[in-house]
Amino acid sequence: MVRENLRIGLLSATSTDVREAPDFGWAQRLTTGKGRERLETLYSKAGRPAGWPIPRLLAYKTYALGAALLVGLLLLSLTGGNGMILLMTVVMVPVGYFLPELLLYSRGIERQKAIGLELADTLDQMMIAVEAGLGFESAMARAGHNGKGPLAEELVRTLQEMRVGIPRRDAYLALEQRTDVPDLRQFTRAVIQADAYGISIASVLRTQANEMRIKRKQRAEEAAQKIPTKILLPLMLFILPVLFIAVLGPTVINVLNTFL
């Protein structure tokens, strides 16, 4: 009886999902295999957001292309074939087509930065747990379940893959490919080598945590050093002219009134 109720519940949930999720099969037929593979890579790096499935993104690309083309043709018909409007249409159509990919790429970049920032603190937590007597996978599970960011989600997914039978080496390599974060790749390679040669995982965690902390500090110092250069252009374009007008304007007016 319990099994029958569970089966009915699963079937009803599946049918509800099918009714709610629209079918974008026509959009998948309008793209090439390489384009779908590129979108799949961006989708993986962005964390596979539930609201942006691949078929829906392909449909959005088609919708954006059609909307940009329609707006361009409308503007051309209203302006009588203006050259500037034609150029704007030529630029707007491919931009509209690749706009969903650009948004997905931006989300992936933000996620990679968040993983890089969280890595040092997560390694510290894992190191403390390992030194307290937990195994490496138990420490990883503890850090994954206690964390809230994208790194915690990836750690939990990696553990789930190992629990279903995927070898640890393959699970770590899959983690590298999904995230594409150099610091995380360095950590996973160190863990793979430690597992292969029998090196103490606590010493590996301590070394990696120190290196990640130093790298994070260096990135912060580098970003701080770039601030004056980034401020220079807005300062010259917007602030200095207004300052010159406020300081030298009355003097120029007085000189003109005196000699004219």
TrEMBL record:
Q: How does it sit in the membrane?
A: Multi-pass membrane protein
Q: What is its main location?
A: membrane
Residue limits of the Type II secretion system protein GspF domain?
123-248
Task: Tell me the leader sequence span.
Answer: none
Q: What is this protein called?
A: Type II secretion system protein GspF domain-containing protein
* Location relative to the cell: Cell membrane
Pfam families on file: T2SSF (PF00482)
**InterPro entries named among the record's database cross-references:** T2SS_GspF_dom
Q: Where are the transmembrane segments?
A: 58-78, 84-105, 231-253
Q: Which PANTHER family match?
A: INTEGRAL MEMBRANE PROTEIN-RELATED, PILUS ASSEMBLE PROTEIN
Keywords attached to this Swiss-Prot or TrEMBL record, sorted alphabetically, are:
Cell membrane, Membrane, Transmembrane, Transmembrane helix
Q: Which domain of life is it from?
A: Bacteria
